[in-house]
Each structure stands twice: as C-alpha cells, then as structure tokens.
Inverse folding.
C-alpha cells in the first residue's frame, strides 16, 4: 500500500528526500504547497537551499517541520510507556458515517455525545 523500502544510509535517505514533493510532508497542505511553489520550493530537496527565505515566510513550527523533512529527519523522541508489560495507546480511532444535516441542535447533540465517548474511553 504505497510503502517504500529504503536503505538506511544517509545518502539513500537524502537521495529519496530530494525527489519527494513537499506536499508529502505532514503539515504542508494545498495552500502551503502553493505558497512554497511560488518561491521555487516544490520538492523536499528544495527546502534546505531556501532555508533563509522559508524561515521568513513560514511559522516557526512549520519551518522546523519543513527543515526536518528537508534534512531527512523524523521524530526522535517518544513518550515513555506506562509499563513494560502494557503497550501504550498511541491514539483513538473510530470511523462513523453520519447523515447530512444542517440542524444546529442535532449537530450540537452529536458533538456532545462524541466528546463524552472520547472522555470516558
């Protein structure tokens, strides 16, 4: 499903990153992609050479994320597990399909129900 096996050498990572579109970077959506493209940044390999410019046009969080992507770096800190015998939950996911509605009251009721369910889980 869209996965790529990559050699763990620094050169292999940088070669791969150089050709990766910036849209593949988490946090860079369509609007950010268009802004970056206007400044000649279309691939992750374009990020580092344009670093000074990007630091001026992106928020600090966006810049840090983009720079890390351009350098081929991923998250390196992980929260400690509660105990070695119990795996730590990384997230909560539940997909549901709802009927379309424009009733504010119905949407508020649904939102309250969902919040309660997440809070008690």
């Amino acid at each position: 499903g869209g996965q790529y096996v990559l050699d763990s050498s620094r050169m292999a990572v940088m070669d791969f990153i150089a050709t990766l579109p910036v849209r593949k970077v988490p946090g860079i959506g369509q609007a950010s992609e268009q802004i970056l493209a206007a400044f000649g940044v279309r691939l992750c390999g374009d990020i580092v050479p344009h670093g000074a410019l990007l630091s001026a046009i992106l928020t600090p969080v966006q810049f840090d994320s983009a720079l890390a992507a351009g350098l081929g770096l991923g998250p390196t800190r992980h929260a400690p597990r509660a105990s070695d015998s119990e795996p730590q939950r990384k997230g909560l996911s539940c997909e549901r399909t709802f009927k379309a509605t424009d009733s504010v009251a119905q949407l508020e009721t649904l939102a309250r129900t969902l919040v309660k369910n997440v809070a008690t889980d």
Summary: The helical segments are 10-18, 30-38, 51-57, 60-70, 104-120. The radius of gyration is 20 Å. The mean pLDDT is 83. DSSP finds five helices and no strands in the chain.
